Amino acid sequence: MIGFVGGFSLGGGLGRPRRTGLRSGAGSARCVIAVDKGTKSDPYSIAVLKGDGAGPKVAEMTQSVLEALEQYADLYFKFDEVEFGGDGKELLLPKESVAACRASDAVLRAPQGLSREGENSAHVQLREEFELFAQLRPVTVYPQLLDLSSFKNSHVEGVDLMLVREVSGGALTGEDLKSLNENADFGETRMHYSRDQVERISNVALQVAEARSGNVVNVDKAYALHVSAFWRNALHAHFAKQTEGRNDITLSDLFLDDFCREVIFRPKDFDVIVTSNLFGDFIAEILAGLGGPLRVSPSTWISRDGLHVCGPADIYNSTAYPDGKGSPIVNPIAMIRSACMMLRYALDEPAASDIIQKSLMKTLEEYVTPDMVPSNGQSVVSAEAFTSNLVSSMEYMYQYEMVCDPTLCGE
């Protein structure tokens, strides 16, 4: 299984043979199609981890969007829906679900967990089972949702960032998930990285940068932590080796506290941000806050063998967060955006991803879901109706609109 960014591999394998097909119609939407996968005879195999709470519903809605995409992009999918999470089941990640993921071309993961209490979670088990080591988390402030931001429109309009976070090492490796003895007189958390781990995330950041502006900012605490100083040295050494003789890639550094201030003051000056596990956990929430309080951010996690696990960046149901009240909120936007990331990064189908992404933006011009505050006169509709309108927007985009260059406008 190989993950791709742009035209190159995140999984370390060779790129697949490609051909370009022009879809005819009233519009001129272009779709790039893989010769050997995604056809009727050999569809993409997608494992769908249904989750719990609102998870199964948003997974179903997202699957319906991908099924509708088939007629507009000449891409075909075979879905394997498997269990993931609680809802009274004994195992959070059954062995049948693991097998389905291993046999798939990519994984779609719905939210799971009504709270963050307890010693383990389905996502932690997933991370350990598949040795997930990198998280890509884009931060795009949609024009249709500008008024939901706490910042002036002019300050966040056009913000387009990509956080590349290492998630296998550092201080959030799962070692501290066991309950602390209440009578303990001493507490300790280890924060450690190997050169191999740093070089691996360096490769991901480099490849993401090559598909974007080429500007990478490393965020660390090198002046205060030995492990962070090691991180910086190893990262720079590997970048220098990989980019020798090139001037299209730049790597600069900011300390964590400085970055948190600067990204609020001037968010449009940043593009690709690479950081360690613990720092990335903090930074992700700061970046997401640029666009407002909505939990609609997508993400993809990458395994050592290139498998992508794509799902909402907020891995739990809404009830697990401080602002969550009552029943889990059913909002398919984060899951649908994650499907776009799956198409773009895991399957190397950027034009197909772009059809959904542009259709989502068109839908947001007219409709929002009940948990969203309409800011531009949009109608409030159910999550199911929102998804149906998105599918209708896909038909409109296909018939009448030029789809933009997928190398320039995709998250």
TrEMBL record:
<keyword id="KW-0479">Metal-binding</keyword>
<dbReference type="GO" id="GO:0009098">
    <property type="term" value="P:L-leucine biosynthetic process"/>
</dbReference>
<keyword id="KW-0460">Magnesium</keyword>
<dbReference type="Pfam" id="PF00180">
    <property type="entry name" value="Iso_dh"/>
</dbReference>
<comment type="similarity">
    <text>Belongs to the isocitrate and isopropylmalate dehydrogenases family.</text>
</comment>
<keyword id="KW-0432">Leucine biosynthesis</keyword>
<keyword id="KW-0520">NAD</keyword>
<keyword id="KW-0028">Amino-acid biosynthesis</keyword>
<dbReference type="GO" id="GO:0003862">
    <property type="term" value="F:3-isopropylmalate dehydrogenase activity"/>
</dbReference>
<dbReference type="InterPro" id="IPR024084">
    <property type="entry name" value="IsoPropMal-DH-like_dom"/>
</dbReference>
<keyword id="KW-0560">Oxidoreductase</keyword>
<dbReference type="InterPro" id="IPR004429">
    <property type="entry name" value="Isopropylmalate_DH"/>
</dbReference>
<feature type="domain" description="Isopropylmalate dehydrogenase-like">
    <location>
        <begin position="45"/>
        <end position="390"/>
    </location>
</feature>
<protein>
    <recommendedName>
        <fullName>Isopropylmalate dehydrogenase-like domain-containing protein</fullName>
    </recommendedName>
</protein>
<dbReference type="GO" id="GO:0005829">
    <property type="term" value="C:cytosol"/>
</dbReference>
<keyword id="KW-0100">Branched-chain amino acid biosynthesis</keyword>
<dbReference type="GO" id="GO:0046872">
    <property type="term" value="F:metal ion binding"/>
</dbReference>
